[in-house]
Amino acid sequence: MVVGLVPVSVKLPLPTDPSDKFQQEVREAFRRLGVDLNTSGTLDLDVFTAAEDGLAPASGGGATTFLRADGTWTAGPVGATGATGATGATGAAGSNGTNGTDGINGGTAEIIPITWNDGAPFTDHNNEAVSGTPGAYWVVMITQAGSGGASLTGVSAATDGQLMEIIIYPSSTSGFVEHEDAASTAANRFTTYDATQQGRGTRWVYSTSAARWLQLKYI
């Protein structure tokens, strides 16, 4: 018999002698119900099908499988994938890139005026103190108010990569930026393209590895 699809084995307390009249009558009664008894007196019941009632097949044990309508035991269905989470907030804007070594098209220009009141004869200005904001593009405007000529042999050392432009005014004044002049401390000196090419308008970058102001170009 089948009770909630749980298989029940029925063992009849009958003799197994096929000539026994009572046993034959019992078998005939079961046969009329569509059930056969085997020779051991046990009911032979089939596993259920899509169209017929019957016993449940053996599960094999465990606690994670379930009986399907097709008579097989299988793991339960996997739940649906959860919804995609909301997009996170946009991160903060990155900082501006470093200005090129020329420094003409970027950075904040800072005008640093210096006045020389030199009379004759020609005068050297050594280790000139230039106090500017680190990282700004320094424009050092040197005005010669005296009657004599003068030259610049060095400017106070700065942080690595500091840009500086030196303009000596007026242009008719005999003013020069000197190359590797020992009158200034080594770390304050200028290294120009050519020792014979000192100029009135020049651009520079400070190199801590070279411990010098290195010339970028003439203007």
Q: How would you portray this structure in words?
A:
With 219 residues, the protein is mainly beta. It is 5% helix and 28% strand. It folds into 2 domains: 2-73, no CATH class; 109-218, no CATH class. The strands form 5 sheets. Strands 7-9-11-14-15-13 form a 6-stranded mixed beta sheet, with no helix packed on it. The chain is rod-shaped, with a radius of gyration of 52 Å.
Question: Separation of termini?
Answer: 109 Å
Number of domains: 2
Query: Percent of residues in helical segments?
Result: under 10%
How would you classify the helix and strand content by structural class?
A: mainly beta
> What strand order characterises the main sheet?
7-9-11-14-15-13
What is the radius of gyration? Answer: 52 Å
General shape: rod-shaped
Largest sheet: 6 strands, mixed
Instruction: Kindly state the number of beta strands.
Output: 15
Strand content: 25-35%
Order of helices and strands: EEHEEEEEEEEEEEEE
